[in-house]
Design goal:
The protein is mostly beta strands and 777 residues long. The chain is built from nine helices and 40 strands.
């Protein structure tokens, strides 16, 4: 063995950042950073280790981590396996028998960038780099919403799940129960702009396909700011990357029964584990069925969701995961209202404004895809993934934002839409980590492709149909014009990208570049006109970060974005095609992750400018003179202790219109974007008195938002949420694994509304209460 070790080449250095903590956690962090397998006995799992920070060989890091603990290291393989075992002294401390303990080598599992998180604090993410990277080493602003947070706060939509995230705001829940559409750093980040991803790939082709079910997610990750270098065409505000629940190595069984306000009845279940004795086949099956009403009269909120997944992993180097899902939504579309009707409270919050036999919103969504990974003997990693997505949507509703209420009458017009959309996406990449002297490189190169199709048939009523808001009598929708005002749009996007994550000493440098080619064809059904457009653009990002021993990690970064825009510029003599809008962001920030605690504090300041913005004249002509600049500050705190969890967020967003075809808009704040937002959530598990009881509460403040063409502004509001959970196993051991949870949102029934323009206002969600009985085994 001595001769063999002398003959080994020098091991490459790796950047380690392992806080002082119990051995089990320290080995987990070490294994993820080095790729080693480390075995240990449960008798010494709580022995406290020493902190390790800096670039060094894995053996040096392991020895430094265990120095002074009385635990010895025995290498069970030439380079990547070890056994840590108690000596006589440390065995006595841990309650073990004196002497050396003989153990079998085991593989230690821990958090990875695509896996589950225990509590509210994630330490790793792949959204900002496409690689499994510690957040403390990421020079970009990223927030991770964990599945535990989604459960504890009873989020029923992606928008709901993001309300405690800095820099993110959305419309009323009456809209988000059907549509994922949020604002990030002052810019719209909807599915139509490619801003919503699933497992790192673009998902939907238009904003009205239907929202993603949060119960099917392991985590939600928000990358703020321009990010086209990673994912191609995007709005500059950022992206939301939803990570699917995946097959598990350990058996997983969970069933939830719910009942709540407006006769909400729901059952959901989540199962996973090995299918074969050797663990080479794993499965996951997640499902949900809901039969519910809504605070708006005659409006159902029904859903069916099922997501099977299977993983084949014949060895440690190869894995193939197949993911599928089906979702059916049955509700009614929440029509936007005029600002003056909402601000005056003229229209009751719960009044149904449609026609019972006409209004509907029915969506069927299907996905099927795979994730493949293989690591070659030389350490080169190949990743390949692809997905097919389709949505069929039928939604008919009465539009109620044309004329203000007059003499108690609301005048509405019918809208009929029948739509099919699809998306085909694929991403193939190679990743290699190597060292050149004292400098470590992690190089990623790849090619991705996205094809989207959106076929929309749209018809509208020929007359306005009145509704008496004091004594509603629901007549029919009136005659429908047979003219099809829809279109069929098909687009392709190709992109190549190259990235290098460079580490030396305490520095981390992120460099990346990309080039995209896009082309699209749109056919208007009313006129038969065909519009073809081609664009291409380079994008990039760069960031620099420094890791201090005390857990501080300041950084600076710059990044760009672009997004093609169909149409023509009426300012040009030849009606030239619209150029892609472009985004440029400068950001500086700092993270703090102290040794020995599950705490992550983040702060960022930024300037984000979007140019080539399309703005429209009063006659509806598109002029490409728009420019928007957003400046802001964002603060976030996440902590998870044994009995206490905390989430805090604050954002100041100054999103100013610098140029527009409408002169009166210049200098104004972007609509739907408050300058100030604040959110705080905490929960505590009682250890004295009522053992088994966990109490949680949250407060959300959304400041006033600007209206471009009317006064006054939309007033700000404060909402309070609450949670009580009781572990029934504390009463009777036979009930172990059973919990009862009661959640309240908008506890004090604050009446508020949101507006995306003076013709796009909706009432907010009233007080809702839900009780959930959960059994896990």
């Amino acid at each position: 063995m001595a001769l063999a070790q002398q003959a080994e080449p020098a091991a490459p250095t790796i950047r380690f950042s392992i806080p002082a903590q119990p051995l089990a956690g320290a080995v987990d962090v070490f294994s993820r950073a080095s790729g080693w397998q480390v075995g240990y006995s449960s008798q010494i799992a709580q022995t406290r280790t020493r902190p390790v920070s800096g670039a060094m060989a894995p053996r040096e890091a392991l020895q430094a981590m265990l120095a002074g603990t009385g635990i010895s290291v025995r290498y069970t393989g030439p380079r990547s396996a070890a056994l840590v075992e108690a000596t006589a002294a440390s065995a006595g401390d841990g309650g073990a028998e004196p002497g050396t303990i003989a153990l079998d080598t085991i593989s230690v599992e821990g958090e990875n960038a695509w896996g589950p998180v225990d509590g509210y604090v994630a330490t790793r993410s792949a959204t900002a780099t496409r690689t499994d990277t510690p957040l403390i080493e990421t020079p970009r602003s990223v927030s991770v919403v964990t599945a535990d947070q989604i459960t504890d706060q009873k989020a029923v939509s992606v928008s709901d799940a993001l309300v405690y995230t800095p820099g993110v705001v959305s419309q009323s829940q009456s809209f988000s129960r059907m549509v994922d559409d949020v604002m990030i750093r002052g810019f719209n980040a909807a599915a139509a702009y490619g801003s919503f991803l699933r497992d790192g790939m673009k998902l939907q082709s238009n904003v009205y396909d239907g929202g993603q079910e949060p119960y099917g997610l392991e985590r939600l990750e928000v990358l703020r700011g321009a990010s086209s270098m990673l994912y191609g065409q995007l709005a500059p505000g950022g992206i939301i990357n939803a990570i699917s629940k995946r097959p598990t190595e350990q058996p997983l069984h969970e069933v939830n029964l719910e009942y709540g306000s407006y006769d909400r009845k729901q059952i959901s279940a989540d199962f996973g584990g090995p299918l074969t004795q050797d663990g080479t086949l794993l499965y996951r099956l997640t499902g949900l069925y809901r039969d519910a009403g809504n605070w708006v009269d005659d409006t159902p909120d029904d859903k069916v969701y099922i997501a099977p997944a299977i993983t084949w992993a014949p060895n440690d180097s190869t894995s193939l995961t197949v993911l599928a899902s089906y979702q059916h939504v049955n509700t009614r579309f929440s029509t936007p209202l005029l600002y003056e009707d909402v601000v005056s409270g003229t229209i009751p919050r719960n009044l149904f404004l449609g026609v019972p036999d006409f209004d509907r919103y029915e969506s069927d969504m299907y996905t099927l895809g795979y994730l493949f990974e293989h690591e070659f003997d030389n350490g080169l990693k190949l990743r390949s993934k692809a997905r097919y997505y389709q949505a069929d949507v039928q939604w008919d509703y009465m539009q109620a934002n044309f004329l203000p209420v007059t003499d108690g009458q609301l005048y509405r017009r019918a809208s009929v839409r029948d739509e099919v959309s699809y998306g085909v996406t694929a991403d193939n990449s190679l990743e290699k980590t190597f060292a050149v002297g004292a400098v470590e490189h992690n190089v990623l190169a790849g090619f991705d492709y996205y094809r989207r199709g959106y076929d929309s048939h749209r018809y509208r009523g020929t007359t306005f149909v009145p509704l008496d808001i004091d004594d509603p009598i629901y007549a029919g929708p009136g005659p429908i014009d047979p003219t099809d005002r829809g279109s069929d749009a098909v687009g392709d996007q190709y992109g190549i990208y190259l990235q290098d994550q460079v580490k030396w000493d305490r520095w981390v440098l992120l460099l990346g570049g990309r080039y995209d080619w896009t082309e699209s064809t749109t056919t208007a059904y009313q006129t038969g006109a065909v519009t073809e457009q081609k664009d291409d653009a380079p994008t990039g990002q760069a960031g620099l970060l420094y890791l201090f021993d005390n857990g501080l990690a300041p950084y600076v970064s710059v990044s760009t974005s672009f997004s093609a825009q169909p149409g023509v510029n009426y300012l040009t003599p030849n009606l030239d095609p619209l150029k892609p809008n472009k985004g440029l962001q400068y950001e500086a920030g700092v993270r703090y992750q102290p040794d020995g605690s599950i705490l992550l504090l983040s702060a960022a300041v930024y300037q984000l400018t979007q140019t080539n913005v399309v703005s429209y004249t009063a006659t509806g002509l598109s002029y490409q003179v728009g420019e928007v600049r957003s400046r802001g500050i964002e603060l976030e705190a996440r902590a998870q202790f044994e009995d206490f969890g905390l989430i805090g967020a604050y954002a100041y967003t100054d999103a100013e219109i610098l140029d527009s075809a409408v002169e009166s808009q210049i200098g104004q704040q972007v609509e739907l974007v408050p300058r100030n937002t604040f959110a705080l959530w905490a929960d505590y598990k009682l250890s004295l008195g009522l053992r088994g009881l966990t109490v949680g509460a949250g407060v959300r403040y959304i400041g006033e938002t600007n209206m471009l063409d009317v006064e006054p502004d939309v007033p700000g509001y404060t909402l309070v949420d609450a949670m009580l959970r009781y572990d029934l196993g504390a009463l009777d051991r036979r009930l172990d694994g059973t919990t009862l949870t009661v959640n309240a949102r908008n506890l004090f029934d604050k009446q508020y509304f949101t507006c995306a323009g003076s013709t796009g206002c909706r009432y907010g969600e009233p007080a809702t209460v839900t009780a959930t009985l959960t059994y896990k085994w």
